[in-house]
Amino acid sequence: MPGMTTEQTGTVPRVPPSTTSGEREALEQWLDFHRATLARKCEGLDDARLRTPSAPPSDLNLLGLVRHMAEVERGWFRRTLAGEEAVWIYSTEEDHDRDIHTEEGDTYEEAYATWQAEIAHARTLAAAHGLDDRAVGRRRNGEEFNLRWIYLHMIEEYARHNGHADLLRERIDGATGN
Hints:
By secondary structure, the protein is an all-alpha fold.
């Protein structure tokens, strides 16, 4: 895209959203920007450090955030937008927050691959819909959503969790920014 540059301070490229794009393009660019931001927050850390919780009593950690966002991508795009019968990846009946509750055997390699697969599938599903198209799936209360709302919610979800990721990363090794 003309006038766009890629920020490359690590190995994860992050393209700043255009300041002149149309609505759909802007929504997709901001969502991708936030996806890349979370990946950057995890860069250069081993699995043990990625599982480091923030501060008691919270057990929130960077690996858990990546797993959580894989679940969120799946929930909003597969289950809600497309109405797929997609089972949860990490969450269980016994532990609804299993995505966040990481254990020693849980790896970033697996979580990252799963998250990227969910992002790829989300892009494919979204490409088949207009912003005003109603999602096939609904919430338990019957609430309906269009793709525009889903994009905005996803941007909000990533932005909120990227704030958490900022604090987690700073606590782990003092790294701030990007």
